[in-house]
Design goal:
There is one protein chain. By secondary structure, the protein is of the alpha/beta class. The chain has 5 helices and 12 strands. It has helices at residues 2-28, 49-59, 69-76, 145-155, 192-204; strands spanning 38-42, 82-90, 94-101, 104-110, 113-118, 123-127, 137-141, 164-169, 175-179, 183-187, 211-213, 221-222. α5 (192-204) links the parallel β10 (183-187) and β11 (211-213). The termini are far apart.
Length: 223
């Protein structure tokens, strides 16, 4: 009889708990358990700290069951580094974001500051120390995503890209390239493909010129 009475008491309290929980869900639209206490970002070396903080603050105290990717996506939209991410949940109280980032591609020199450009060709807010050791192309002058992307993708077809140190974008769509061994190349306002083929031929023939001027189509000046 005592065992039977104990079972009745157990089920009675269980029903009360469920009723209370249901009331809480209806009132607050949340479960009073599995609440997030820790948010972790993996492989997020360049992911903006302010955006990580905003995501963390918006998730702390939320229920792991109620996390919807569509809403999380909105929190990531301002990032210039996050290419994609996966959500991993560790019950009872932790959520992980496995981040896939764009990679650093170049450096934009603007006055005294050095900003990283990622391989989505976007200038980011990531500022480098002047004593950095990254072996990246330096972009000088007014940055244009369209122009740099076009030039870079064409340059990828040629071996000389590995020796390119900096690109200077001038007024009137003029571009100058600076290579190792103090080689200076002035490009014209016509096909990059055509000009890069000329550069490749000159370099391939081991002509150690310091200046190659291609500004006028059909004319090559070397010094």
């Amino acid at each position: 009889m005592l065992a039977s009475k104990g079972k009745k008491n157990f089920f009675f309290y269980l029903i009360l708990f469920l009723l209370f929980t249901t009331f809480q869900i209806n009132q607050n639209n949340t479960f009073p358990f599995f609440l997030i206490k820790k948010v972790t970002f993996l492989d997020a070396g360049n992911f903006e700290e302010n955006i990580k903080n905003n995501i963390t603050e918006s998730l702390i105290g939320r229920n792991l069951f109620n996390i919807k990717k569509q809403k999380i996506d909105l929190l990531f939209t301002d990032s210039r580094w996050v290419k994609s991410y996966l959500i991993k949940k560790k019950y009872p109280e932790e959520i992980f974001f496995q981040i896939s980032e764009y990679k650093p591609l170049a450096i934009h020199q603007k006055k005294d500051n050095l900003y990283l450009i990622n391989d989505n060709f976007l200038i980011t807010d990531k500022i480098l120390n002047k004593n950095h050791n990254l072996d990246l192309i330096i972009i000088i002058g007014e940055y244009s995503k369209k122009n740099f992307k076009k030039l870079y993708k064409e340059a990828l077809q040629h071996d000389f890209l590995k020796d390119l140190i900096s690109i200077k974008f001038l007024n009137l769509d003029r571009v100058e390239l600076f290579f190792k061994d103090n080689i200076h190349i002035k490009l014209g306002k016509y096909s990059y493909a055509s000009q890069f083929n000329i550069i490749s031929k000159i370099i391939k023939n081991n002509n150690y010129y310091k200046l190659i001027d291609l500004r006028n189509e059909g004319t090559v000046i070397v010094k």
